Structures are given as C-alpha cells and as structure tokens.
Amino acid sequence: MASGRTHDIINLLALPPLVYYLKPTDYIGFSAGYLAGTFFLSPDNDIYHSLPNKRWKFLRIIWKPYTKIFSHRGISHYPIVGTLTRLLYLVIVFSALFFVCYFLSTKIYPDSKKIFSDINLNIGYLTSPFFISFLIGLFLSEIIHILTDIVYSFLKKLNPKRIL
After folding, report:
1. Contact, 65 vs 71, CB < 8 A?
2. What is the mean pLDDT of each run of 10 residues along the chain (164 residues)?
3. Closest by alpha carbon to 10, among 153, 162, 143, 155?
4. Where are the domains of the chain?
5. Cβ(19)–Cβ(31) under 8 Å?
6. Nearest one of 45, 65, 66, 67 to 56, comparing CA atoms
C-alpha cells in the first residue's frame, strides 16, 4: 500500500487535469472538495495514526470510534460508499456535539434557547452547484486514492523485493 505522502502527491498531480475539464463556475467547489478529500477525508481515516487523521490536530479524537467501527481497506475503501460513510459519520458526531452543547447551555442558562432557535437549519444548500461540485471533488479524490492503492499493490506483487 502506498504511503500517505505518496497519496498526497499523486492526488495533487491529478488535480490540474481534472479541473481543466470543468466549467469555471465549478472550479472552487470541486477543488475545495478534492483537497478536503485528499488531506482530511481520505479512505485512510480508518487508521487512527494515518496522516489524514493527524491533520485534524486536536479534533483527531473524533476519528477514534470510526477506526474501531471500520476496518482498513473495508467499506471505507469502496468508491463513493466510503466517502458517504465518512460524511455521515461526521454529521452524526457534530450533531451529537451540537445537542450536547444545546442541552448543557439550556441547563446553565435557560435563555440560551432563544440563541439556538435563531439558528436556521436550511438544507437547501445541499442542491447548490457549489455543494454538488464539492461532493464530486470528494468522490474523485477518493477514487484516485483507491486506484493508487490498487496499482501500488499490483506493482509490488510483480516485484516484491523492490518497493516503489
């Protein structure tokens, strides 16, 4: 399996040709998703000491349960499904944190319910062109990561004594 640094380099080298074929309105969303997928939401998030997890700094702890739930090269390495599991996992974790904050703040300061009621949870942005481009970028960064693993493993089997 390729190292985290190798994945980063290959994904970064693949970005310019991918962006070349996009409409200019999609550059930012796609690139943001692609870079987030490369550096923070990699299929290797299922390894606690992986480079993508280390990049989360003190928030890295949120990935500990994920590494216990998903085995390496399991569902997290299935194209599209892996990204969806990581996104769903983050939604669950941050929703739980939100509700804990809500519960604690309303117990300590009852008037804080007004602050939370002012938060507009509009999910209409999920159909925006930016968000769709962002998701496509996430998915493509994952696919390139998985293809790199496949090619690296194949080449390693051809010549096991020489590591790429």
Report:
1. no
2. 79 92 90 95 89 92 92 84 94 91 83 70 78 94 91 81 59
3. 143
4. 4-87+125-158
5. yes
6. 45
